[in-house]
Amino acid sequence: MCGITGWVSFRPDARTTQDAHDPRDTGRHAGVIEAMTATMARRGPDATGVWLGTHAALGHRRLSVLDPVGGVQPMADRPDRPGVVLSYSGEVYNHHRLRAELRRLGHEFRTRSDTEVVLRGYQQWGAGIADRLEGMYAFAVWDEHREQLLLVRDRLGVKPLFWARIDGGVAFGSEPKALFAHPELNPRVDADGLREAYSLLFNTGPTLWAGVREVPPGELLVIGRDGIREHRYWELTARPHTADLPGTVEQVRFLVNHTARAQLEADVPLCSLLSGGLDSTVLTALAADELRLTHGTRARLRSYAVDYSDQAESFTGDVLRTGHDTPYAAEAGRFIGTDHSTVVLDPLALLDPEHRRAVVVARDSPIGVGDMDTSLYLLFGEIRRHSTVALSGEAADEVFGGYPWFHNPAAIAAETFPWLLVTGDEAAMPLNPELAAELRIGEFRDATYRDALAAVPHLDGENPTEHRQRELQHLSLTRWLRQLLHRKDRLSMAQGLEVRVPYCDHRLVEYAFNTPWSMKSHDGREKSLLRDVGIGLAPESVLYRPKNHYPTTHHPAYTRGLQQLAREALDLSAVREIADAAVLKPALDAAPEQLSWGQRLRLERVVDLSLWLDHHRPTLTL
């Protein structure tokens, strides 16, 4: 897991190496690529490298996971006169099989790394390498002979990849901050960017930043002298499901088991995130079993949960949380036999301006979920003291139908994105009236929803229930999941921790997407198929526990501190240009125990907005 960046430019005077005939150019381009690469030092704390060519520059920050000695990047096909150069981030889980195939085709390997498999795979199949990879990845390949740059992102969008036009070509990076270290690109936000940010629709392509785009999941870009070509190499399709329920359960069990075990390879310490819910417990149980098979019966997988120092005595439920996680996580750890730890956070540590600033800087965005982001960042920091890789249960709710909107009649019938109904307008950022009139977010949401539904594939003859559930699952997988993956990637990589998400395996996603809803809910509950898989892997208390979201603190002192931070934020004129202070006043003045979760989230977003404006110093053109 790493950070990648660079650019390609075909302008006539492009020089990315020192020009002996122009002393003004000495080291100029080397300094730019080094500055871009340095912005991602936290993503790759173990090593840094750059490569400079006539029309391209590639940079890399490395978090060593596989083959620490051999996997140095940027990686070239040969050291003397490179024809192909790669900067790669992620993990390819089928690299052993691809390596064997490439060897049969005559390729020789210098390293054990999956990076070199991607490099040699490009030499063999060109852009077709994307179709053969299984895993999470974002990479750039510069082909010196063809004079073209290839940018590729994994199918579900686990790893990020951004790009922007520059004179004669494009710049790219794992995070927008890398782009802004390029002299032609500046952090600028216009009305379209704020519309994307505050609508909470999670479009892929456009971003908060003017001129900066995201490579969509399952897509690749080819940049050459003739321009930019975009190609979608993977997307969800509708296919008939022919298996009966027992056969379906067996196939889901096979797919979950395969992806969990396949993602355990690492040359560094590995652990699991164990919340005490069904998703993480099944995953942890399979990983622990594989570890015992490969390393002996005494091998114990590390597992981690998060809690707050006040929760044991004063847990308070809300619209997203019905129970206290820690006892369930501890029971699951005992049942599975992990070396389990609970990271207990002080609620007041979540108010620390440096922690909050670090989170906003990692996200490159003011849009998050406040204390839950800061909590996750601190949790990852504690885990990183012992492990470099962690397994996470992210995406199980999207894949197996775990969210309330799959089951709530009002959400099913609603003609909008279902997550907008969880807390309603209470959690949305109240915008300055003049800005709100300019953005017209309601109209934007309606138009985007119509476009989103038009993109959903269907089978002829679907009954109304199956038709609607396919829509809800497609919206969840192609939009809601993406912001969760962004959050997980940015906050983990900001601590130098690689988080793997086995439920994002594209074969599992494809199979579940085409499994009828009647099977996904055959026991009258959420995630019926995953519960079937979990029998014998999880204690019954976990197996039949209701869905619970990531924990949050309800300590009154935290809420009072948040209210004070929000008041200070609203003293800034730049914040008031975006946020409506009058609408926020009741939440600022309320007793801490009277604030709803949605009201508190509004205050969290105001605080994050002030930190974002202060750090990124964006030019606002509204």
Q: Could you characterize what this model shows?
A:
The structure is a single chain. This protein is of the alpha/beta class and 622 residues long. It is 42% helix and 16% strand. It has a 6-stranded antiparallel beta sheet with strand order 2-3-1-9-8-11. The protein has a 6-stranded antiparallel beta sheet with strand order 4-5-6-7-12-13, covered by helices on one side. A 5-stranded parallel beta sheet has the order 16-15-14-17-18, with helices on both faces. A hairpin with a 2-residue loop joins strand 8 and strand 9 (169-173). Helix 23 (556-570) runs antiparallel to helix 25 (581-589). The model is unreliable at 13-26 (pLDDT under 50).
Helix content bin: 40-55%
**Mean pLDDT value:** 93
- How far the N terminus sits from the C terminus, by CA atoms, comes to 37 Å
Main sheet summary: 6 strands, antiparallel
* Overall shape: globular
Helix-strand category: alpha/beta
Give the neighbour order of strands across the main sheet: 2-3-1-9-8-11
> Which spans have pLDDT < 50 for at least 5 consecutive residues?
13-26
| Total count of helical runs of at least 4 residues | 26
**Estimated radius of gyration:** 24 Å
How many DSSP-defined strands? 19
Strand content: 15-25%
Q: What topology emerges from the helices and strands here?
A:
Elements: E1 2-9, H1 28-38, E2 47-52, E3 56-62, E4 75-76, E5 84-92, H2 95-104, H3 114-125, H4 129-132, E6 135-143, E7 148-153, E8 162-166, E9 169-173, H5 176-179, E10 188-190, H6 191-198, E11 212-214, E12 219-224, E13 227-232, H7 245-262, E14 270-273, H8 278-295, E15 302-308, H9 311-314, H10 325-336, E16 339-345, H11 353-363, H12 371-383, E17 389-391, H13 396-400, H14 409-413, H15 420-423, H16 433-439, H17 441-454, H18 464-493, E18 498-500, H19 506-513, H20 517-520, H21 528-534, H22 540-543, H23 556-570, H24 573-576, H25 581-589, H26 597-616, E19 619-621
Parallel strand pairs: 10-19, 14-15, 14-17, 15-16, 17-18
Antiparallel strand pairs: 1-3, 1-9, 2-3, 4-5, 5-6, 6-7, 7-12, 8-9, 8-11, 12-13
Helix pairs in contact: 2-3, 7-8, 7-19, 7-21, 8-10, 8-21, 11-26, 12-18, 23-25, 23-26
